[in-house]
Write a structure and sequence with these properties.
disordered N terminus, nucleus, 22 helices, elongated, Beta-catenin-like protein 1 N-terminal domain-containing protein, mainly alpha, two-stranded antiparallel sheet, disordered C terminus, single chain
Length: 359
């Protein structure tokens, strides 16, 4: 609710300053501000320990209630609500990233991470939101050492594996779960930002690549498909290991199929346009290992890129870029390009007879 709407005219009064100018003063608002300042909790080690102790107490109560009444949800529902509240309170720690080493030393990270496996999906979603907040780029800025301590603890306690496992049970059609999908991808990106090695670890230890491929195969566009394409590009851009792994998973063909949706049409929004560029970034990264160039040729990728060029849609320049990656130091791709009369289309581009809207 906006402050202006919350004011009660009866509580206003006017007073004259030294110049005799009348001024409106909302005394109730000043009183509320003063009260909030007096009750503001200081974020220090003592506060951290208080939050951790309270969280562990509620977690223990929930575990005991579920074990005692496994088939009576109404008997452990209250403990679940209280556990939810404690997870929400832990978000305040994002305001003091310098305390992250203390959070780790209190050995509460394993308990938090394990809740990603909780039978109640809502609790797992709470954890996703918490991890996203704690690892947010803005939060960790200028706190590199503290950030690394937390990220190392999360990785050591199987956060990557559990995040991806939970990702597979989330349903995009549910608004809260849809938001948790986005939050999971954001957390993975945050972890990579702090510790680049996570890019290969998450592909080695989890089925994230498989999930991402499944997401970009969906025809309908949404924000999570866009984010999936971005995360996939991040995972591929600096890792030959990931490039080869995705190639072995039929990734070249899947990315080509995703790109082919735009061979004769343009994206409908700037977000969808960004996703298309992400997909081409993925394709170009995939085309760096020699074996993936071969897969590209066999999947008729050369022909698809020429079709896109002929259609002269937004992806025109990106198709030229992909062909450049495919044909660099790989004669079979060059031969295929010549055999399917790609030179005619290329000459039109280089002679300025075709529009390169996007490069």
């Amino acid at each position: 609710m906006e402050v202006a709407n919350a004011r009660n005219p009866a509580t206003k009064r006017k007073f004259d300053d030294t110049n005799g100018v009348a001024t409106d003063v909302d005394l109730s608002l000043l009183e509320a501000i003063e009260k909030s300042q007096n009750t503001l909790e200081v974020l220090d080690l003592r506060t951290l320990k208080k939050h951790v102790l309270s969280f562990e107490r509620r977690l223990k109560e929930n575990i005991e209630a579920r074990l005692k009444y496994p088939n009576q949800p109404d008997r452990f529902a209250d403990s679940e609500v209280e556990l939810h509240d404690e997870l929400q309170k832990l978000k305040v720690l994002a305001g003091a990233p310098e305390l992250y080493p203390d959070l780790v030393s209190l050995n509460v990270v394993p308990s938090i991470v394990d809740l990603l496996n909780h039978d109640n999906t809502d609790i797992a979603i709470d954890v996703v939101q918490l991890l996203q907040d704690l690892t947010d780029e803005d939060v960790l800025d200028d706190n590199d050492d503290s950030a690394r301590v937390l990220v190392d603890a999360l990785v050591d306690n199987s956060a990557l594996e559990l995040l991806v496992q939970n990702l597979h049970r989330l349903n995009d059609s549910d608004p809260d779960e849809n938001a948790a999908v986005y939050g999971t991808l954001a957390t993975v990106e945050n972890l990579i930002e702090v510790k680049p090695a996570v890019a290969e670890l998450v592909c080695e230890k989890t089925k994230l690549l498989k999930w991402l491929l499944g997401k970009i195969k969906v025809r309908e566009f949404d924000s999570n498909k866009q984010y999936a394409s971005e995360i996939l590009a991040i995972l591929l851009q600096s890792s030959t290991v990931n490039q080869k792994k995705l190639g072995q998973m039929n990734g070249v063909d899947v990315v080509l199929q995703a790109v082919a949706m735009y061979k004769s049409k343009d994206p409908k929004s700037s977000d969808e346009e960004e996703m298309l560029e992400n997909l081409f970034d993925c394709l170009c990264c995939l085309l760096m290992p020699l074996e993936n160039k071969e897969r590209f040729v066999k999947a008729e990728g050369v022909e698809l890129m020429i079709i896109i060029m002929k259609q002269k849609k937004l992806a025109y320049g990106s198709a030229i870029r992909a062909l450049d990656f495919a044909m660099t130091k790989y004669p079979p791709a060059c031969e295929r390009f010549v055999d399917v009369l790609g030179l005619k289309t290329a000459f039109a581009a280089f002679m300025g007879k075709a529009s390169t809207t996007k490069t």
